[in-house]
Amino acid sequence: MTVFQTDGNRFIMDGNPVRLISGAIHYFRVVPDYWFDRLNKLKACGFNTVETYIPWNLHEPQKGRFHFEGIADVVRFIETAAELDLHVIIRPSPYICAEWEFGGLPSWLLADSDTPLRCAHPSYLAHVDDYYDVLIPLLKPLLCTNGGPIIAMQIENEYGSFGNDLSYLQYLRDSITKRGIDVLLVTSDGPEDICLQSGMIPGVLGTVNFGSDPETAFAKLQEYQPNQPLMCMEYWNGWFDHWGKNHITRESKDTADVFDRMLRMGASVNFYMFHGGTNFGFYNGANNHTGVYEPIVTSYDYDAPLNEAGDPTAKYFAIREVLSKYTDLRDVPVPEPSKKKAYGKVRLSERADLFDSLPRLSQSIHRISPEPMEKLGQDYGFILYSTFVSGPKKNCELIIEDIRDRAIVFVNGTEAGVLERWKPTQLMIEIPPEGARIQILVENMGRVNYGPYIKDTKGITGSVRLQSLGWCNQFLFDWDIRSLPMNDLSELQFHSQDHSIMMPAFYRGTFQVTEAADTFLDLEGWSKGVAFINGFNLGRYWSVGPQRRLYVPAPLLRQDLNEIVLFDLHGVREPSVTFHETSSLG
């Protein structure tokens, strides 16, 4: 049994002063075979603690159906940290932000539009309790008070940036403690009055999140919490990327300088991130602070001390040099980078058109009006809406109200245009005398993970109308809807076909591997879509950048024959990809 607690302005462990030098590594962004490697590199840098969020949506993807295996095996991750004698800070759901889909909240919460989020509403709290009834018993044996590595637990995340329902925070605190959590409880917020006033509660240690000016940030914290340990729960030493924007980096010398200043103040620090990893599958989040939707890329490299592939960077060694002034690291070797390999060019010679494959992918549901994904029990991926419109109709604008997030419109099987949530676009169509079938393929590009717009339903969330140049503004009814979550492609039938048909389709190829190593999938020439390796969803790609290659960890590859499948939304002239040794970032 270990006791970790505060004693005036310091942390003590079993009666001895201790300073936490922590780094964030999210188990759900790293394949399990690499957990030990990443944690070992954290320790070799001079750190004594690892911090991780716990995303609710990963562990309860459908109401009452829980998942704690594979990449979701949080218990195994924490036990791996214990093998390396690392302390663990956990920051569990309900909400985590983390540039993660819906901030970690499960999409099924949105099926009931009357339930408010992140407050003391009874229906929301009932869902949280059901989740805690499963999660907390898994964590309890791992507490330091029970001989495990967990020394602290966060009760919510940056709540003062969202709301002021202190009864909600108190409820979460009491829910955790009554289930047997007896380690130090913490909150984390921005170092501002508005955030700290609504994010801190009695009996819970407040910490602050920032990327610079630690003197001002800690001074503000001390106004609200004097004579307590100083801790930066999120030291933003890098940042994340949005599609269509530039890759963001932070200079290593500046990162190390701010870190050193915090250490000279006697503070404890948690690097966010120490190793970012990858937003595999459809788990990337999105931002919408000012009404402009910005989806986050697949890579979560974050310009962190360990890059996306887990290799030490210049920032890693700059931080290690700072720490060497406070602890002796001369005899601690730095683990080697992982082996990389370029497997070369692979031709994707087989194709399965999306529209031909619909009966193998989903069942059609009839609705009078379009409905969003959540109303149909769908979480991620794509959704297809189809209706027949009589003709003739000339010079009509197709209006899709509140499209979430990107729609490709087809008229009688021909692409008529693309409508995007973040870019006002007028789409004019004409209906021939015999009428036409309108199909609208909508992509969920990631639910908003932070701020006032997190209640982010997906698909068509309003009406679809045809507006003529005159006075007519006609609602379209009678829809067939197909959910396309893309979580099972095993029934697809591939054929050798003409790849010049520029329509949504699946492309398949195979390649040989004699020695598995990390590699990077280059998608030059492809438009936008999703990549799968041996059935594993690597994530999204998009020609707008900044990310142009997807990280492929070696454990996803098989000795001998490997399969790659791309679902591309707009088609490709030359159906081939190339595997390289290096990333496209930086």
TrEMBL record:
The active site is at residues 158, 234. Residues 504-562 form the Beta-galactosidase galactose-binding domain. One of its GO terms (biological process) is carbohydrate metabolic process. GO terms for molecular function: beta-galactosidase activity. Residues 11-325 form the Glycoside hydrolase 35 catalytic domain. Residues 370-484 form the Beta-galactosidase 1-like first all-beta domain. It comes from the Bacteria. Keywords: Glycosidase, Hydrolase. The keyword Membrane does not apply. Transmembrane segments: none annotated. InterPro entries: B-gal_1-like, BetaGal1-like_ABD1, BetaGal_gal-bd, Galactose-bd-like_sf, GH, Gly_Hdrlase_35_cat, Glyco_hydro_35_CS, Glycoside_Hdrlase_35. Belongs to the glycosyl hydrolase 35 family. PANTHER family: BETA-GALACTOSIDASE RELATED (PTHR23421). This is Beta-galactosidase. It comes from Cohnella abietis. The gene is bga.
